[in-house]
Amino acid sequence: MGPRFAPMSEPHSKGPAVVALIGSLLGLVFSYSSTVDYAAHLDRRLHDVHCSFIPGAPPTSEAEACRAAMYSPYSAVMRDSIWGGIPISVFALGAFAFFASFALYLLLARQKASRVNVLLFAAVSVTPLIVSAIMFTISVTKLGTLCKTCVGTYVASAMLAAGGLMGLRTLRPSVHGTERPEGQPLIAVFWLVMLGVVTLLPTIVYAASAPDQRPYLGKCGELKKPEEPSGALVKFRGSRAVQPALLFEDPLCPTCKALHERLVGEGVLERLDVTLSLFPLDNTCNWMLSDQSLHPGACLVSRAILCAKGQALQMLEWAFAEQTTLTAAGKMGEPALKARIAQRWGQGLADCTDSRDTKATLNKHLHFAAENNVPVSTPQVFLGKRRLCDEDTDLGLRFTLKQLAPEVLQ
Amino acid sequence: MLVGLATGALLTLGLIVRVHGAVADAKDRLLTPETNKPAVAIADQSEVGYCTPRFKEVLERVLHSCGLVSGEGGRRGCQPSDVKTFASISDSDFNELFTPLKNRGAVVMYDEGKDDLDANEKKLLEDMWFERKGARYFFVVARASKTGTVDKNRALSHRRANSVLFHLKDVSKDPEIEKTVGLLWLGNEFAQLSKEYCGWNNSRPESKCNEEVINRSAFVSWVDCRL
After folding, report:
1. Whether residue A292 has pLDDT greater than 90
2. pTM value?
3. How many alpha carbons lie under 13 Å from residue A95 in its C-beta half-sphere?
4. What does the alpha-carbon distance between residue A312 and residue B113 come to, in Å, rounded to a whole number?
5. Which domains does chain A have, with CATH numbers?
6. Phi then psi dihedrals of residue A234, to 5 deg
7. What's the whole-number mean pLDDT along residues A274-283?
8. Which spans in B36-176 are helix H?
9. Is B97 helix (H, G, I), strand (E, B) or coil?
10. Where does residue B130 rank: exposed (0-12), middle (13-18), buried (19+ CB within 10 A)?
11. Which among A96, A101, A25 has a CA at the least distance from the CA of A56?
12. Which of residues 42-71 of B touch A (CB under 8 A)?
């Protein structure tokens, strides 16, 4: 007589619980990795982030999708009151720990597990998948990128949900006629409370342990000469502007694009009266980069923004939106880049980028940076005369604004 | 069920310890000054090879003595006696200092006894002005030839320096130009140019050039030095 294999959906099958357990453990690993990466940034230093489908793979410096997700407004809650907020991954951590333990129980208890428990597990096991679906939609529609660690969590959530739902088929009577015990309905309430407690405990510990960042805010320098005397800088005022802000930006800098998206996403940009000092990291116009152009073509795109006059913000946002193609064109040379600009904004504007006055105006932007001895990096944000530290413009943006310019968040 | 509960309790406890540890580690690093903090370049005006200590010393004296750095207004430029006094430098050494600016600057030529700029001179001047790059200061060193009296030539070179400044004001519309342009007028008393300067970029490359002609001029250049 050959060995007997129970199909996964047979009442006494271990399959659903095993799938749910593996999904939970995977979710635990991915969310732990995200949480540790997030927590590391609380020291206000630069860190590589883990961004791999392989749990535990070493961090790399090329993890921009994960960094974009981390810095986005959607990666954490309570950003106003805690620097960086509480990452969603900490909630996931607790939840996956609960699901892993429950799945282990179902695996070991098999037919002894009550119907109530199996039903409850099926019901709650889909919650991570629902959250994952929401986060996936946000990633695709708002961030335009998918972080590998996040995708790992989505897959883990799907496995967990699959295991939980497949478990429903084990509620049928077995071929041996053994029935599951019904169980007390009140136990469901107990498990729900436990799910809440286990989910919240790491969150509470994270929030309670987070360092006080207030002493460090706004300690990254001041403008020496806040006014550009010839009025060369670009101005755009948000529809509900309450706070003057000076931005140093490079239209082909991915971090500037990410900051701009955060400012728009958080509803901050419309509350700012922005002065924009263009600071292209391209040595065709910027003498401060002697050996290398970090963003070839950025000088030309900056001049195009100056030529756009009243449409400077639209031009900047176009440059951010088309950053990948503009960067590629910039590497091919000025004619290719100018053709892209002419195609979208007309030949007149493309010609304007070559004018002596436009070049002189961009030069004034660069001299404004030099006069103020700002770091040679982009983006930089100044509220009034005070420079926000780089870390306070990404993870700590909302907290910093709440502390230094609360009216911006109202 | 007990196994599940125990596993859950252990897992939760372990996670709490790890989460607290990760946050506490970050807190420790936050409170500890970063020793290997990567150096960040600071934006500044350009500084090139010819900015030797001697060159910068003279430059600094010019800037202070000619009213650029104080920004108090009133006094604009330096006349020959000033230059002799503050520069503490011989004629030839003074000219030698400007040699590295051969390719950065140009010589605006004038007719004898004149201080007005024709189209060529204006164009050359504008070409020089708009090639600023990272320079902080623009120097105008006006001269006059040996023909005529010392006083007359001193006044003439002063007018020549001013003609440059006035044209630059017109084309640049820069309200801070007074803090950028350093004027020196040397008349025919100090640091006359030798004939070899005829080979420098000038506004009349087709015309005959000699020692008389090259000194009816204003040498203009951005200076890529920090002070």
Report:
1. no
2. 0.85
3. 23
4. 49
5. 15-209 (1.20.1440.130), 234-409 (3.40.30.10)
6. -85, 140
7. 96
8. 53-65, 80-87, 91-98, 119-129, 150-172
9. helix
10. middle
11. A25
12. 42-46
Write out the two tokens for B21.
């540890």
Which residues are CB-contacts of B22 (< 8 A; sequence separation ≥ 6)?
A35, A36, A39, A40
The answer to whether A359 and A308 have CB atoms below 8 angstroms apart is no
Distance CA B80, CA B57 (A): 18
At A128, the amino acid letter reads: P
**CB-CB neighbors (< 8 A) of B125 in chain A:** none
Look at A181 and A158; give whichever has higher pLDDT. Answer: A158
pLDDT, residue A152, reads 92
Q: Which residue of B has its CA nearest to A44?
A: B30
What region, left, alpha or beta, does residue B173 occupy, with left being phi > 0 and alpha being psi -120 to 50 degrees?
left
- Contact between B173 and A229 under an 8 Å Cβ cutoff? The reply is no
Residue linked to tokens 């913000």: A313
Chosen for mutation from B44, B48, B130 (greatest number of chain A CBs closer than 10 Å) is B44
Closest chain B residue to the Cα of A288, Cα to Cα:
B43
**Interface ipTM above 0.85:** yes
Three-state secondary-structure class, residue B109: strand
Domains and CATH numbers, chain B: 53-223 (3.30.1330.60)
Quick check: A1 pLDDT over 50?
A: no
Chain B CB within 8 Å of residue A74 CB: no
Chain-centroid distance, C-alpha A356: 41
